[in-house]
Structures are given as structure tokens and as C-alpha cells.
Design brief:
There is one protein chain. The protein contains seven helices and nine strands. It is α/β, with parallel strands linked by helices. A hairpin with a 3-residue loop joins strand 4 (about 105-110) and strand 5 (about 115). It is globular and about 50 Å long.
Length: about 230
């Protein structure tokens, strides 16, 4: 690991983890505490209505958002998380069909949800974030943690308020950034702008695909992250 800085004291205050993807969540995500303070207004898209009562006797489950541009390695990270976690978690993904899980670990499966024998549950957000959180709230026993995979073009800033939805509390934003994407000059201005907006929203930055670049490109990729 190569930490740059901790906390959220300024717009450029991130923590950079420089690690192979298979260790990402096991070593980082459950130790992430972003320390956000202050009131937060929930701006929910569409006609969704928050529940009137808190579930689970008022307990709030930590929720972590995982973002990054297309091809950065988010789905790989989710798969590794489900394969290595030793605690019951809920994972909200863009496409539950993309989750690669050993069939022997699957207790129940439907078109939009996978329930594992270890208590983990994986559901899709295709019908909206509110519906996905409602499906988790409907469970008698809450998960220890909720991880939400954002789409490659989603604006993390607009999704973060969901972390204050009934029954949940915001744990932080993890952004996965691919070294080969950051080191190249071939990306369009629009793509670079998208990547920059993801990085700016991060509490924790994870640099992936470091095996696809040489030392000079790796230094350049890290410099790009530190610039934001």
C-alpha cells in the first residue's frame, strides 16, 4: 500500500492504494472510515419515497460506493469481494449476471438477486437504487455491510446521498482507476473529464492494472491521481 493522504480535509485529500485487485476489499474496504460530518440533504431521483420507519430496530448498516470508469476493474473487485469475505454483506451491482460465483455457494437465485450460503446477497440496481435498497431493507436480518457498484458513467456525487437512506449510513466512496487508462494520451476530453469527476469524489483510490504498464507509465498514472 502507498497512502497519499487520509480523510476528506480538502478536495484533493484521498488515500491511494497501489495494490493488485484481488486484495482490494479484503485489505481496504472494511477499514475505510471517511469521517464525513455535517448534514446532508437526500436528493432522490424520480418518485421514490423513503420509508417512514427505520428497519432493524434503528440499526444503520454502513454502505460503501465503488465507482470508476468503464474497464477500470469494478466488477472484478466485486467478484473478489464475494469470493473472499468472511461476513454477510449485500452487494448492489449493475448486472447480477456479471457476478461470477461458484455454483456451490449459491443458496437461491432469481433474475435480479443471488443469495449465498454464507449470508451474502447480491442484487441488481436495474430498477433503481431505491428498489435495490428496499429489497435489502425487507430482509429480517440486516447485512454487516452494503457495497454498491456504480456504473462507469455514473456521477458518484449524485449517488452519495443514498448513503443516508433509511437503515443505512455512508461509509465512503472507493474509486477504482486503471493505470493503463491514466497513462495514455489517447482518451478523449470527455472520458478524461469523467475519470476526473470520479477521482474527485473518492475517499479511497485504488490503482489497478499495474501489470499492464511499465515503470514510467505507472509513475505517470500515479501523478495523474495525485494531481486531482
Amino acid at each position: 500500500m502507498a497512502p497519499v493522504s487520509q480523510g476528506r480535509a480538502s478536495a484533493k485529500s484521498h488515500t491511494l492504494i497501489h495494490t493488485p485487485i484481488h486484495t482490494l476489499f479484503h485489505t481496504a474496504i472494511y477499514t475505510l472510515r471517511c469521517g464525513k460530518t455535517g448534514a446532508m440533504r437526500i436528493e432522490t431521483p424520480g418518485p421514490y419515497r423513503e420509508p417512514e420507519f427505520l428497519p432493524w430496530d434503528g440499526r444503520r448498516v454502513p454502505i460503501t460506493f465503488v465507482g470508476g470508469y468503464l474497464g477500470a476493474g469494478k466488477t472484478t473487485a466485486i467478484n473478489e469481494l464475494l469470493a473472499t469475505t468472511d461476513r454477510p454483506i449485500a452487494v448492489v451491482v449493475n448486472d447480477v449476471g456479471s457476478v461470477n460465483i461458484d455454483a456451490r455457494l449459491i443458496r437461491r437465485r432469481s433474475a435480479d438477486m443471488i443469495e449465498l450460503t454464507d449470508g451474502c446477497v447480491c442484487c441488481t440496481s436495474i430498477d433503481g437504487m431505491g428498489a435495490a435498497l428496499d429489497s435489502i431493507r425487507a430482509r429480517d436480518t440486516p447485512p454487516d455491510h452494503v457495497v454498491v457498484e456504480l456504473s462507469g458513467v455514473a456521477d458518484p456525487h449524485r449517488m452519495v446521498p443514498w448513503g443516508q437512506s433509511a437503515g443505512f449510513r455512508l461509509d465512503g466512496v472507493v474509486i477504482v482507476a486503471a493505470a493503463d487508462q491514466l497513462a495514455t494520451d489517447t482518451l478523449s476530453r470527455a472520458v478524461r473529464g469523467n475519470i476526473a469527476s470520479h477521482i474527485a469524489a473518492a475517499d479511497l483510490l485504488v490503482l489497478t492494472k499495474i501489470d499492464l504498464v511499465d515503470d514510467a507509465e505507472l509513475r505517470r498514472a500515479r501523478h495523474v491521481l495525485e494531481t486531482y
